[in-house]
Amino acid sequence: MTGFSSPCGACKFLRRRCVNGCVFAPHFCHEQGAAHFAAIHKVFGASNASKLLTSLPATDRREAAVTISYEAQARQHDPVYGCVAHIFALQQQVVNLQAQLESLKAQEPVQGYTNTCSVSSPEEDSMKAKVMACQT
Amino acid sequence: MTGFSSPCGACKFLRRRCVNGCVFAPHFCHEQGAAHFAAIHKVFGASNASKLLTSLPATDRREAAVTISYEAQARQHDPVYGCVAHIFALQQQVVNLQAQLESLKAQEPVQGYTNTCSVSSPEEDSMKAKVMACQT
């Protein structure tokens, strides 16, 4: 319950009584919560979302509610790629940034720059490894 | 059907008859498909996954099947953040790469480098804008 006997946003959307201890209540307020929960209900299903939150320690539920809400809204916005479109965009952004750093390193011999102008190769290699590890 | 009357991986997992025109059949093979579909069934639910694929043009369903499979597996691996953890990691990687480029630009006056050693400010600003736009 969110107080004053008003149902939480999830129970308001589901048109059901919001009982004490409702797993959604702390994360979906009466007003905006219903709209946010609508996407979760359509993409994951209320039952699956409830099972997920219930399976987590109370301290982790807020973050989980935020991330499934984000994933659900992204899937509604882009039914084919969902939030994976965001991952692809960020991976391309990382590749572009690394290309700029590689380009600067390649210019060093020509420009006769010292290491003060170069980027850290170990760090760059580490980033490359992260990008490779990020490939879905 | 996947041929030879064997059910697709989704129908095999759901232990149901795989009919001609099964929306899952083209994307979940009899062998590995069942394991991949298990995560989708647990996270999204078979019905929600079926509704999503059915709502898309046939040409988009393969990509959608791949992305929901990825999201489902990521959520099983990390129940709190799911694939959003991947987004956070990539965003941090972008910030770190941009910091390296900023550092190189800051060194220019000291080193007396010409623009041949500088990175493109407009591109960098554009990337910053993308990162901001990517904030969840």
UniProtKB/TrEMBL annotation, chains A, B:
It holds the Pfam family LOB. GO terms for biological process: hormone-mediated signaling pathway; positive regulation of DNA-templated transcription. InterPro entries: LOB. PROSITE patterns: LOB. GO terms for cellular component: nucleus. It comes from the Eukaryota. Residues 6-108 form the LOB domain. Signal peptide: none annotated. Belongs to the LOB domain-containing protein family. This is LOB domain-containing protein. It comes from Triticum urartu. The lineage of its organism: Eukaryota, Viridiplantae, Streptophyta, Embryophyta, Tracheophyta.
